[in-house]
Predict the structure.
Amino acid sequence: MKNSMKTAVLIPCLNEEEAITNVVRDFAAQLPGADIYVYDNGSTDRTIEVARAAGAIVSYESRKGKGNVVSRMFADIDADIYVLVDGDDTYDATAAPEMVEKLLNENLDMVVGIRDHKDEDEAYRSGHQTGNAVFNKFLGVIFEKTFTDIFSGYRIFSKRFVKTFPCLSRGFEIEMEMSIHSIAARLPVAEVVTTYGKRPEGSHSKLNTYRDGMRILMTMVHLFRHISPLKFYAGVAGLLALFSFCLGLPVITEWMQTGLVPKLPTAVLAASVGIISCLFFAIGIILNSVSRGHMEMRRLVYLNFPSMAACRRDECENVEKE
């Protein structure tokens, strides 16, 4: 692949002494001229020394969590094309040139590597597969669009994506935040099927299925509330209105039949819940206007950066001048 645009390979790392050498060397071989960055997140083994010996540019992030590391890398590193990959040697480096070409040729902002684990069942635990499928479906329900693999750690980005992505997550929910950001901002994205392999001996996953799964779920709900407040608060208002109706219907029926309200506390509760329901709906309307303003500002900042097509045109013009 002949490409003079600056490419950076970003590898967040924690205790990957056994795997990091292969990751650095494989991506350096597949993307000649790319800068390979390894950001260590407090490793207690020889990850730093091994990565540096393999030819990587090593930096550090003291705040624990993959999201914090990715946030630091996105802020520190300047490039035209960004390749984000885990340091556990489970992703196929040979797919990187195809993914970069797809980003360039189709003028995209993100290309996601879908993990193909058919022949490597042990590499991708069944619990993680099930959780991934559930979250993919849930994402499609609340945002009306989804990805095949929202938790893939293998992604290619344009500069305009990286420099306009807020990156608020601290842990493994970072991949989901990237996916939701692309949906909310209506960014052009694509997916490419890639091989997903086993970790090398001595390398262990840092993902806790239940703890991190709950954090991911709460982050998804938080982002839904932030990005689509009208839908979120209207949904809560609808549930409260239904509860109020169920409480108040017997009271109203009895009043119409007898002219009395013997269950006064129930009537007061039903009326109060109904008022709260109206307040939630009003909050949704107000916050929806605020959210729209934020999205417009984010879009304007995004448009300040050139697209991949514009970068490629500039590259061709520079080559012709030379």
Summary: The two ends are 19 Å apart (CA to CA).
